[in-house]
């Protein structure tokens, strides 16, 4: 086993700041409390970080409010340059941050290296967008007035992020907020505060003025977040996480009529037609299923393969998934790390047991190993019936349920039979069908002969219960801008 990444992780965990980042300084929580961050590969405590109280949340908000006016007045080029420097700093310390991320979240080190680059790319993209915030000018149809349309920052924004992409889900929000001229309070997930704290340090070093970004990890998110949403000084909520919590925060945002962006859960169908390039479909399936140990909102959750190729597809997928090496993510030999915690593992195990009890067949994997850490083996199931829970619920683990379909209509009906609508994957070589099916899918994104859709330059987001708004791409910055129209005589 290579010791390299383990050693890098130990040093990174030791050296990352573990306080609250408020008004440009590191400080303890008001009540002096701290909470433990766990290594999911061992179940052991990595370190403790300051545990923000509701009063700390309010202090962070006050710092963001105090910084808003001067930040909004900062030249767009200057805001962009800060992001550009942060992009370079993230890449320069890529190995350290990747090891830190794997230590607290579990994903294989190669994927963490990929995520640091992906996260940094949001800074580069929005560094370029900061100087392209345009407006409009027009003459009224009756010629009686002129319209001047300007774009202004929404104002202090609350960013709430999940544990599964601890760095990229932060930069996907921080990047556009900085570019637009908004100040922020970031509340990272309690499982993965270290990557967010590392980000704060990078942005400080890149020259972000005090108070523009404030980071408040807490073991009790509900009591900290709700008063902020009801305060009136926060003008925007950008949330990534589960549909259940997103819905709760949407309700809380109603009292102050906040601008809201929600990136929520998914239940992605992966449809393979008989005319598809089967090698490419299996390759794409591996990516769509196994990226991030299956703990991705974009993870393929249900595989629908056309009857003539269903068995061949299932056999090949089971062979590939069964051949993956499972173990601590810091060992580069391992391709599949642990799930985030025991609750996550038990949920996956329960979904597999449920499918089997309803008639599904296990083709590989299917039972959790003994020993430390929250590991679950890559698992393929065939003949998964429509009433199996995993066809309707987010699995969030390395489990691929395959069901054969007979017609395009049936595949589409099954694909859309869910309250979620984030992404769908389609494999076919028939161009007409590709466009027809892409149009008919009720999702915000479609992977067409591709197992990964995420790209900082593309608009990411869902429909139905998968969310509101888009992150990334040209529209990403819109979420942090208001439109003001000036009528001129
Ligand atoms: P989660 O909803 O439990 O937590 C997300 C965030 O909300 C965390 O910061 C958490 O501390 C906070 N939170 C939890 N309860 C809260 C409350 N009562 N009030 C205020 N904040 C609260 O989700 P998770 O388990 O961290 O992440 C997994 C979920 O995120 C999955 O459903 C996944 O699909 C989704 N996700 C979506 C996207 C996307 O872009 N659509 C990306 C990544 C993850």
Question: How would you describe this protein?
Answer:
There is one protein chain. This protein has helices spanning 4-15, 54-72, 76-92, 94-105, 109-129, 168-180, 193-205, 221-229, 243-253, 278-290, 307-322, 342-357, 408-416, 431-440; strands at residues 20-22, 25-27, 34-39, 44-50, 136-139, 146-153, 157-160, 184-187, 213-215, 236-240, 259-263, 268-272, 300-306, 361-364, 379-382, 399-405, 423-427, 445-448, 467-468, 481-488. The strands form five sheets. Strands 14-15-16-13-12-17-18 form a seven-stranded mixed sheet, with helices on both faces. A six-stranded mixed sheet has the order 9-8-7-10-11-19, sandwiched between helices. Helix 6 links the parallel strand 7 and strand 8 (184-187). 39% of the residues lie in helices and 20% in strands. It starts with a helix and ends with a strand. The chain has 489 residues and is of the alpha/beta class. Nicotinamide-adenine-dinucleotide (NAD) binds next to helix 8 and helix 9.
């Amino acid at each position: 086993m290579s010791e390299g990444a383990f050693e890098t992780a130990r040093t990174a965990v030791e050296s990352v700041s573990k306080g609250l980042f408020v008004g440009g300084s590191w400080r303890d929580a008001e009540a002096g409390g701290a909470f433990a961050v766990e290594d999911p590969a061992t179940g052991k405590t990595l370190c403790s970080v300051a545990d923000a109280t509701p009063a700390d949340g309010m202090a962070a908000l006050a710092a963001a409010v105090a910084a808003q006016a001067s930040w909004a007045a900062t030249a767009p080029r200057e805001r962009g340059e800060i992001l550009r420097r942060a992009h370079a700093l993230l890449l320069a310390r890529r190995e350290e941050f990747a090891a830190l991320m794997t230590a607290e979240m579990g994903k294989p080190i190669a994927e963490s290296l990929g995520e640091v680059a992906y996260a940094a790319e949001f800074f580069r993209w929005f560094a370029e967008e900061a100087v392209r915030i345009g407006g409009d000018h027009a003459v009224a149809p009756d010629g009686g007035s002129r319209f001047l349309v300007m774009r202004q920052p929404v104002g202090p924004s609350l960013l709430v992020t999940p544990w599964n992409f601890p760095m990229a889900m932060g930069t996907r929000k921080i990047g556009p907020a900085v570019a637009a001229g908004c100040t922020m309070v970031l509340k990272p997930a309690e499982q993965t505060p270290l990557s967010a704290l590392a980000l704060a340090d990078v942005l400080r070093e890149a020259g972000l003025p005090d108070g523009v970004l404030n980071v408040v990890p807490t073991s009790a998110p509900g009591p900290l977040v709700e008063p902020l949403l009801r305060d009136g000084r926060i003008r925007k909520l950008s949330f990534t996480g589960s549909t259940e919590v997103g819905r709760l925060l949407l309700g809380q945002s109603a009292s102050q009529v906040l601008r809201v962006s929600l990136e929520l859960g998914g239940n992605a169908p992966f449809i393979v037609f008989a005319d598809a390039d089967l090698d490419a479909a299996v390759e794409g399936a591996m990516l769509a299923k196994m990226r991030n140990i299956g703990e991705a909102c974009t993870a393929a959750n249900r595989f629908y393969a056309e009857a003539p190729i269903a068995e061949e597809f299932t056999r090949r997928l089971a062979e590939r998934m069964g051949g993956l090496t499972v173990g601590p993510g810091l060992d580069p030999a391992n391709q599949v790390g642990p799930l985030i915690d025991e609750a996550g593992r038990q949920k996956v195990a329960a979904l597999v047991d449920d499918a089997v009890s309803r008639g599904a067949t296990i083709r590989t994997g299917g039972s959790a190993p003994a020993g430390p850490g929250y590991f679950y083996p890559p698992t393929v199931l065939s003949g998964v019936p429509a009433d199996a829970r995993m066809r309707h619920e987010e699995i969030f683990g390395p489990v691929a349920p395959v069901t054969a379909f007979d017609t395009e209509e049936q595949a589409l009906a099954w694909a859309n039979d869910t309250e979620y609508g984030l992404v769908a994957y389609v494999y076919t070589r028939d161009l007409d069908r590709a466009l027809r099916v892409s149009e008919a899918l009720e999702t915000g994104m479609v992977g067409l002969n591709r197992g990964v859709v995420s790209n900082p330059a593309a608009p990411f987001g869902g429909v139905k219960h998968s969310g509101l708004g888009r992150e990334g791409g040209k529209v990403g910055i819109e979420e942090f801008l208001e439109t003001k129209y000036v009528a001129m005589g």
